Amino acid sequence: MCGIAGRILDRPGPVGADLVELMQAQEHRGADSTGFALYGEPRAEGFVVKVFLSDRGHLDRSLVELHDLITDHGGELTADPTWDDTGQSHVFIRLEISEPVSPVARWVDAADELEGVEIQSVGRSLEIIEDVGDATEVAAKHHVGEFIGTHGVGHARLATESTVLPTASHPFWARPFPDVAIVHNGQLTNYYLQRRRLERAGYRFTTENDSEMIAVWLSDQMSSGSDLARALATSVKTLDGVFTYLLSTADAIGMAKDRLAIKPIVAIEDGIVTAMATEEQALRHLYPEEGETVNYDGPGLTRVWPATTPATVAT
Amino acid sequence: MAGHDPGDGGDVTAPAHSPAAGTGAGAGTEEIVEVGHRPIREVNADIRKAVARGSRVRVQDTLSRHNLGVALPEGADLVFEGSVGYYCGGLNNGATIRVERNAGWGLGEAMASGVITVDGYAGMAAGASMLGGLLHVRGDAGPRTGVAQKGGDIVVEGSVGFLSGFMAHAGRIIVLADAADAAGDSLWGGEMWVAGNIGSPGVDSRIVEPDAEEVASVEDLLSSLGVGDVSRRWKKIVSGQKLWHFESRDAQAWLMI
After folding, report:
1. What's the ipTM?
2. Is A43 a catalytic residue?
3. For chain A, which terminal residue's Cβ has fewer other Cβ atoms within 10 angstroms, N or C?
4. Are A30 and A158 in contact (CB under 8 A)?
5. What is the set of domains in chain A, with CATH numbers?
6. pLDDT in tens, B150-192
């Protein structure tokens, strides 16, 4: 029983603060860890890279290794790296880099060789922020409430099939597809079957979490000519289990629900401005006045909510 | 009977006028309980105190919160002035409850008696495992309405979602519009009445013609709710009774989803 939520604004705004509200209101669904996939102002080129380092004591060495990795693949740092000052034994690093010559998959795979390093997300606008603790704790540690952006998704995790670690937290990045992330409430029963197919196609996985596989599976569909709506619909037939997930991309949030429809999702849709959450009571933290809610209660439902980007906002 | 304690920290607006002598401290009066972001245990305690005083209770600022108005006794009379979350009216034991907007999942779960009315939509599993009483949804109801129902009546003026009536043992689910797929799946002994279309019947269910006496009973109930219409052509879904003698070697035959 996890809690998920999404938020879309019609112009850059306090999407981080909104998602913290939505996730803290669902803290009872799982307070093992909380995470956010947030979309800020997109770059024309280059990426924001979020990195998990398991041992803060190795920070200096790892920063050098990451710098060398990026330059080895034809990119460079475009800003000084930053990292959290929480004092926890692990540390999250944020890099801004120019466009490497190598494809994303190549340098991300190469990062697997760095001790204690895990690439959390790569995107022109995507930044994944996650840690152990409830939404308020994670927001305080990583300043989530200050994030300005157009849209994002959040997750409150009740660990069921893997351990409580920052790296087992949602959202998961759809490695190696920039700007694609997932939050998921449920369990797949044909996870290994689908994962093995993707591995045979050359994909590498950071975790053994079924949610990560869904994100990669959908991205693979979209890279093979499908659009988000069709990929979502196909997933309902292909993925077996009980699930409701939100897949976020640079310009949309998609939702799919399994054929047994046991995992809730409710939305308030006001033009492009949208909020969706596992529980309606969470939405009411953003919308205290009664309004129209859309209950996606039925089996096999899918939905795509388009998200604006700063580049498309009329001034 | 519990008296009102103005120092209890609750958010109850006491009645402005004096109650009639000999009929309880608040009999015949109306009290307001605010929900907001207060702890639900505290809200429910305030509701129970007001009920004990014999007051009709109007619950405001409900914010779709969960577990409101559970396990209330006979004589309780509540109105929720907004939407409620999960399990509203659960374990109801004779109370009359009205929700003026929507209700979340598990409305009236395991209620034994009383009446719950929802003016809007009721989420999944409304009336799950209910034992008795009446659940009346004026809009649509979600999937699994009346799942494992063991008695009482569920009336839905709109449509119900898929797998409604799943494994119901007793009682009636009466649907004035349509029923989605897998209607009455694995019914054990309950009945599902549908005036509109049935997406598909569930496994081990049969659609039969109700007799005149049964129709009259249903229409009497609907008339009492102000929605009687004798011109309806009812379809009644009952158990096929094959699963009563389930044989594990035949399990594959029952897999539909």
Report:
1. 0.85
2. no
3. C
4. yes
5. 3-42+130-312 (3.60.20.10), 44-123 (3.30.70.600)
6. 999 999 999 999 999 999 999 999 999 999 999 999 999 999 9
